[in-house]
């Protein structure tokens, strides 16, 4: 693990993947694709249709849009609850 590799915790809560940046190493924001791919490997399941939110190194909550080999971001309104709602709505849209 290099000093630029982000350290993070993750869990699934209410069907949403929650990733929390631990502010050690690189940031989850700058390494989002690698973080999501690492979590996907650890869970041994595809994440392209699962809602994903993360807490950045400033403590703000945002949404990660994941597609194979690409990530995008949506504002999560800063709070975990709001970010989870936005992520779930976005996931519903991707499934339709």
Question: Which terms would index this structure?
Answer:
single chain, 96 residues, alpha+beta, 5-stranded mixed beta sheet, 2 helices, 5 strands, 29% helix, 33% strand
SSE layout and pairing:
Blueprint: E1 8-13, E2 16-21, H1 32-43, E3 52-55, E4 61-67, E5 70-78, H2 80-95
Parallel strand pairs: 2-3
Antiparallel strand pairs: 1-2, 3-4, 4-5
Helix tally? 2
Mean pLDDT: 85
What's the quaternary structure here? single chain
Strand order of the largest sheet: 1-2-3-4-5
Describe the model.
- There is one protein chain.
- This protein has a 5-stranded mixed sheet.
- The protein has helices spanning 32-43, 80-95, and strands at 8-13, 16-21, 52-55, 61-67, 70-78.
- The chain is an alpha+beta fold.
- The chain starts with 7 loop residues before the first strand and ends with a helix.
- The longest helix has 16 residues, at 80-95.
Quick structural summary:
The protein has helices spanning 32-43, 80-95; strands spanning 8-13, 16-21, 52-55, 61-67, 70-78.
């Amino acid at each position: 693990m290099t000093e630029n590799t982000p350290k993070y915790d993750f869990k699934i809560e209410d069907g949403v993947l929650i990733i929390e940046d631990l502010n050690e190493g690189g940031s989850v924001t700058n390494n989002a694709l690698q973080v999501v791919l690492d979590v996907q490997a650890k869970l041994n399941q595809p994440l392209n249709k699962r809602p994903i939110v993360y807490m950045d190194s400033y403590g703000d909550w945002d949404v990660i849009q994941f597609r194979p080999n690409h990530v995008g971001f949506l504002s999560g309104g800063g709070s975990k609850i709001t970010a989870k709602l936005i992520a779930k709505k976005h996931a519903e849209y991707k499934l339709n």
